Amino acid sequence: MLFVPLAVLLGAASTAVASPMNPRALPTPVSAATARTYLASLTVEAESNSPAYDRDLFNHWITISGSCNTRETVLKRDGTNVVTNTACAATSGNWVSPFDGVATTLASDLDIDHLVPLKEAWVSGARLWTNAQREAFANDLVRPQLIAVTDDLNQAKGDKDPAEWMVPLSSYVCTYVRAWVHVKYYWKLSVDSAEKTALTNYLAKC
Asked: Which parts of the sequence belong to the GmrSD restriction endonucleases C-terminal domain (predicted)?
């Protein structure tokens, strides 16, 4: 994988880069104050994995426009100078993973993170949804739910909630927890007690 420290990449930027690269924003999450209000209203209950989680029940990635699917749409949104082929696959571009500030020029180095992971959604209520609802959640481009990040970091996160894992870039923590609560509130997902405590503590510092 080709990862380049952001400072190095910016220092070596050529004339092909039209503007300094900054992490592109996912849809703006609610404010910290609103997130605290939302969090207070969420149902607190233990997670349930009965029936057992099956990733195939969350259909993704779906076609968004023309030949572009959800992944390709997020890559174009989150990158700069992104060039795609006729199949809408990104062939070049510049991306900065907002979770860790790592820059890359290879789309293959990136995963599209479900900010609230699919399994987390399942054990928090999505197991009771229809397949259509799960598909809408897995491809939600309106809420702050999908974001391009370094693949190894996404894999390290897995299906962990904020009581178990947090983004390593401290300047992004508030954005992450605001987005987490925003998504859980919109989709009427529950939180477990440890998760709520962690979110409460993070939001108190925002």
From this structure: 105-200
What's the CA gap between 95 and 9, in Å, rounded? 11
> 3-state SS of the chain: helix, strand, coil percent to 5?
40, 15, 40
| 3-state secondary structure labels for all residues of 11-33 | HCCCCCCCCCCCCCCCCCCCCHH
For 153-189, write each residue's pLDDT tens digit: 999 999 999 999 999 999 999 999 999 999 999 999 9
| 201-205: long-range contacts, CB 8 A cutoff, minimum separation 24 | 202/162, 202/166, 202/173, 202/174, 202/177, 203/32, 203/35, 203/36, 203/39, 203/174, 203/177, 203/178, 205/173, 205/174
Q: SS3 of 200, please?
A: helix
In a domain, 115, yes or no: yes
Helix (H, G, I), strand (E, B) or coil at 145: coil
Overall pTM > 0.85: yes
**Structural domains counted in the chain:** 1
pLDDT value at 139 more than 70: yes
**15 pLDDT more than 70:** no
Q: What is the pLDDT of residues 176-186, one digit of tens each?
A: 999 999 999 99
**Does residue 128 fall inside a structural domain?**
yes
User: Quick check: is 20 in a domain?
Assistant: no
CA–CA gap between residue 119 and residue 132 (Å, rounded): 16
- pLDDT band at residue 4 using 50, 70 and 90 as cut-offs: very low
